[in-house]
């Protein structure tokens, strides 16, 4: 019976080649778009799933409250995690990650020098919290000693030729007092998965690091993670964090700001600590100092809805085309029913045709995906591969997806076409308008409504992209070339800058710690002298020529002077900072740094003078 159904279905499809081609291409396009989005959504939902204890790992983060506003940070004071573990037994492990300011790390192997990226300093219990595939070395002991390093497979192979050769090897870095620090490779692990909210090429043990041992309860430095007891409640633990502030943070606030914790909080300041589940960080966290750019749960929802709509449009198109041929198929149904065919047999026949079209469409859809995937990866920043479709699990998924789509698209036509009464059809009294006309018209209206909605959304997104890539950024970006890591020149960096200015075609040269769009505009807190109001914002260190090179406009005053002795304690604000400080006359205002970041070596606070106000420009990603 099935063999007969198959032959009839194939004959019908081949007989109506134009109709079949339109149906297949329409369904294939919808399926390709849907499957592409499914690949993206599965990738987004699969972050940080490789850890054995992933369900019980949480990151402690912070909302830092300031008068009239607050800023959220993914880094917290480095001693808070240990305090929480000491106070509450539900915390089995507390471990910290210190990012090396974007990952630039200079090292020497023999007479060769290298610059490594994605270098993170971690506590010795890192592998008791996070799971890794160890290729060589003992995960439990690899980071126990000072100056020990764990490399990933790619880095070990790049430097030492193979994983086996890397173990026990050493490299040097610039240490204190011109004495090089020597680091030993104690383990090599498999490359960290891309679908993780942080990545590394090299892990350096914090054991022996002086800064890691210093007590710090108010300055933000460490990404801190907890491994909780499986029976522990993250919400219950969060509710206890105010006790940590009273016991550990209050004294540091009194010492740094000259206020009790109650006075500090009454003035609008404060710390609100909370936990983020590890496996949700990628989709829910968009805080300051994230280790990697994260995704968006809203984007996942929107993409999923769009995928359903696109597939729905393709199925509706299939339904409309099928029911539009109802007059032609009605004669076939009438004759077959006259010869004794039952309705359920006709339904099976029509559904089989629909599933066959769906099956052929799915094959074409995978071909379309193979063609579109490079462009899609470029658009989304992913590294998705069509190879994913050829695993047993994905093949099963696609077969199930194909059958479901075929049944959904063919269900209504099958029941409508099989319901025709043979007597009326054969007498010529059948009129197609009587069958499904209202539904077909409704489906067409629905198609147009969804299509218009998606087109409008596309136009909006396109205009937003034009804005983000446009000229209204507040600085000049064309014909600007950045030479990175000139800091390694030390005292010769100024001479390098002066020599570059002599090169033909070079109009301006400036040195800076960050360019617009980079993530290393560091956090800095200042307060107006003789005032307790503080403002924490973003800052850079730069020279006198920065504004001229980037075409920044001055709103008031001037930019830095070339004479360093004149402006050694000068500061330039933007218009937003002036508003935050509430300065009616900013030029000449005196600022100090209460967190000690810009104090003298002996701890004496420097007093900075505002010499200019630059017009606001976009220094972070839009």
Protein architecture, described:
The structure is a single chain. The radius of gyration is 33 Å and the shape is elongated. The mean pLDDT is 85. α2 packs antiparallel against α12 (297-324) and α12 (297-324) packs parallel to α15. It has helices at residues 2-15, 17-45, 80-87, 126-129, 153-160, 163-166, 210-213, 234-238, 241-257, 261-266, 281-284, 297-324, 326-338, 343-380, 392-417, 422-426, 437-468, 493-501, 546-550, 575-581, and strands spanning 57-66, 69-73, 91-99, 105-109, 112-116, 119-122, 134-136, 148-152, 170-173, 181-189, 202-205, 223-228, 270-277, 522-528, 534-539, 554-557, 570-574, 590-592, 607-614. The strands form 3 sheets. Strands 1, 2, 3, 6, 7, 8, 9, 10, 11, 12 and 13 form an 11-stranded mixed beta sheet that branches. Strands 14, 15, 16, 17, 18 and 19 form a 6-stranded mixed beta sheet that branches. The longest helix is centred in the middle third of the chain and has 38 residues, at 343-380. It is α+β, with helices and mostly antiparallel strands and 622 residues long.
């Amino acid at each position: 019976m099935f063999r007969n159904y198959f032959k009839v279905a194939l004959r019908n499809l081949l007989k109506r080649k134009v109709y079949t081609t339109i149906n297949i291409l329409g369904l294939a396009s919808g399926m390709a778009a849907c499957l592409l989005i499914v690949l993206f959504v599965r990738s987004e939902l699969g972050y940080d799933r490789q850890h054995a204890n992933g369900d019980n790992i949480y990151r402690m983060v912070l909302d830092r409250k300031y008068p009239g506003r607050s800023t959220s940070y993914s880094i917290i004071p480095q001693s808070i995690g240990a305090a929480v573990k000491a106070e509450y037994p539900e915390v089995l492990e507390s471990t910290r990650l210190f990012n090396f300011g974007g990952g630039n790390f200079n090292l020497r192997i023999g007479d060769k020098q290298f610059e490594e990226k994605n270098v993170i300093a971690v506590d010795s219990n890192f592998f008791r919290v996070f799971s890794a595939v160890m290729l060589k070395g003992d995960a439990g002991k690899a980071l126990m000693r000072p100056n020990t390093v764990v490399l990933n497979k790619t880095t070990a192979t790049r430097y030492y030729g193979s994983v086996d050769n890397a173990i026990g090897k050493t490299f040097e870095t610039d240490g204190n007092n011109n004495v090089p620090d020597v680091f030993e490779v104690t383990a090599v692990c498999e490359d960290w998965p891309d679908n993780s909210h942080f990545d590394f090429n090299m892990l350096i043990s914090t054991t022996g690091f002086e800064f890691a041992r210093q007590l710090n309860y108010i300055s933000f430095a460490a990404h801190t993670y907890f491994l909780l007891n499986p029976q522990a409640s993250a919400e219950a633990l969060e509710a206890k964090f105010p006790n940590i502030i009273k016991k550990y943070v209050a004294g540091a606030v009194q010492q740094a700001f000259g206020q009790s914790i109650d006075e500090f909080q009454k003035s609008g300041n404060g710390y609100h600590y909370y936990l983020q589940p590890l496996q949700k960080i990628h989709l829910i966290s968009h805080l300051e100092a994230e280790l990697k750019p994260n995704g968006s749960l809203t984007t996942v929802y929107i993409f999923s809805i769009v995928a359903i709509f696109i597939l729905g449009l393709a199925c509706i198109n299939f339904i409309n085309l099928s029911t539009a041929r109802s007059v032609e198929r009605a004669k076939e149904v009438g004759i077959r029913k006259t010869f004794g065919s039952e309705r359920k047999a006709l339904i099976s026949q029509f559904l089989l045709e629909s599933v066959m079209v769906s099956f052929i469409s799915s094959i074409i859809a995978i071909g379309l995906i193979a063609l579109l995937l490079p462009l899609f990866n470029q658009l989304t920043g992913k590294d998705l591969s069509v190879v994913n479709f050829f695993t047993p699990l994905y093949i099963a998924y696609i077969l199930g997806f194909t059958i479901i789509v075929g049944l959904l698209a063919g269900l209504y036509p099958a029941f409508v076409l099989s319901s025709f009464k043979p007597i009326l059809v054969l007498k010529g009294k059948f009129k197609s308008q009587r069958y499904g006309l209202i539904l077909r018209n409704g489906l067409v209206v629905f198609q147009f409504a969804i299509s218009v909605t998606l087109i409008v959304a596309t136009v909006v997104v396109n205009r937003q992209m034009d804005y983000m890539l446009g000229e209204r950024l507040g600085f000049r970006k064309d014909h600007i070339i950045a030479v990175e890591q000139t800091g390694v020149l030390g005292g010769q960096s100024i001479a390098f800058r002066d020599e570059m200015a002599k090169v033909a075609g070079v109009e301006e040269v400036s040195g800076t710690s960050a360019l617009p769009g980079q993530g290393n505009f560091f956090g800095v807190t200042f307060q107006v002298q003789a005032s307790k109001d503080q403002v924490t914002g973003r800052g850079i260190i730069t020279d006198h020529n920065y504004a001229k090179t980037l075409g920044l406009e001055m709103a008031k005053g001037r930019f830095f002077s070339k004479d360093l002795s004149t402006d050694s304690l000068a500061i330039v604000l933007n218009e937003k900072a002036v508003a935050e400080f509430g300065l009616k006359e900013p030029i000449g205002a005196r600022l100090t740094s209460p967190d000690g970041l810009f104090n003298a070596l002996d701890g004496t606070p420097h007093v900075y003078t505002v010499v200019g106000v630059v017009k606001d420009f976009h220094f972070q990603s839009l």
